[in-house]
């Protein structure tokens, strides 16, 4: 693999890969417990890669953040290429992409970008569709199922970014399961529980 990663094996023969992408300044172990919460039957083999960039204030990153909602183009290109290569190297045809915060941005970018293979589904917790030079949303093909959750009181990535992304995706023809919760920059356990049958139906 092109990046270090943590893993959560499937129970029996995997039906595909489930990639969870951590947020800014975290590590490949940050979302490991989320695999069993979202996929309790362990149908998918779980992979959680580490971001390729070491930036202030520490931890692993996927891109630099000069302004929320607008990734730095140069570092975004690095993170996008690294995650794309990681996903493309997985030995499965069926791949579910998901992530939190910066990892949600990367999951939407890698899953829905122009020229990218379509995943089985994309899950974005507290993220947004990026606005960045060199990347475009691919609206020329059918979209996979997309789920987005965001906190109304998120002080890190304001909920307006989720509203803008939802409008952009729906205008392009995507069907999005969107849930907004009265929380800050975190993952709503109630939305995670709702996603279990959603994933099982894939």
Provide an overview of this structure:
With 202 residues, this protein is of the alpha/beta class. The protein contains 5 helices and 9 strands. The protein has helices spanning 32-38, 73-88, 102-112, 159-171, 189-200, and strands spanning 5-8, 17-21, 45-49, 53-54, 60-61, 95-100, 121-125, 146-151, 176-181. A 7-stranded mixed sheet has the order 1-3-2-6-7-8-9, with helices on both faces. The protein has a two-stranded antiparallel ribbon with strand order 4-5. Strand 2 (17-21), helix 1 and strand 3 (45-49) form a beta-alpha-beta unit. The longest helix has 16 residues, at 73-88. The chain is globular. The two termini are 26 Å apart.
Q: Which features characterize this protein?
A:
alpha/beta; 9 strands; two-stranded antiparallel ribbon; 29% helix; seven-stranded mixed sheet; 202 residues
What is the share of helical residues?
25-40%
H/E topology pattern: EEHEEEHEHEEHEH
Total strands: 9
Number of helices in the DSSP assignment: 5
Unreliable parts: none
Enumerate the strands of the largest sheet in spatial order, edge to edge or round the barrel.
Answer: 1-3-2-6-7-8-9
Spatial extent as radius of gyration: 15 Å
**What is the distance, rounded to the nearest whole angstrom, between the alpha carbons of the first and last residues?**
26 Å
Instruction: Summarize model confidence as the mean pLDDT.
Output: 97
Shape: globular
How much beta, percentage-wise?
A: 15-25%
């Amino acid at each position: 693999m092109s990046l270090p990663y943590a893993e959560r094996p499937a129970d029996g023969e995997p039906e595909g890969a489930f990639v969870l992408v951590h947020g800014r300044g975290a590590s490949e172990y940050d979302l490991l417990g989320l695999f069993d919460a979202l996929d309790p039957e362990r149908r998918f083999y779980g992979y959680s890669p580490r971001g390729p960039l070491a930036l202030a204030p520490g931890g692993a990153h996927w891109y630099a953040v000069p302004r929320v909602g607008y990734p730095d183009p140069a570092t975004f290109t690095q993170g996008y290429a690294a995650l794309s290569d990681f996903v493309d190297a997985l030995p499965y045809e069926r791949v579910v992409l998901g992530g939190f915060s910066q990892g949600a941005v990367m999951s939407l970018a890698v899953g829905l970008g122009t020229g990218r293979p379509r995943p089985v589904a994309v899950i974005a917790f507290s993220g947004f569709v990026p606005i960045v030079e060199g990347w475009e949303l691919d609206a020329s093909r059918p979209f996979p199922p997309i789920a987005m959750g965001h906190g109304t009181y998120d002080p890190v990535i304001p909920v307006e970014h989720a509203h803008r992304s939802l409008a952009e995706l729906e205008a392009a023809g995507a069907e999005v399961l969107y849930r907004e919760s009265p929380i800050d920059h975190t993952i709503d356990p109630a939305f995670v529980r709702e996603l279990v049958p959603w994933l099982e139906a894939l």
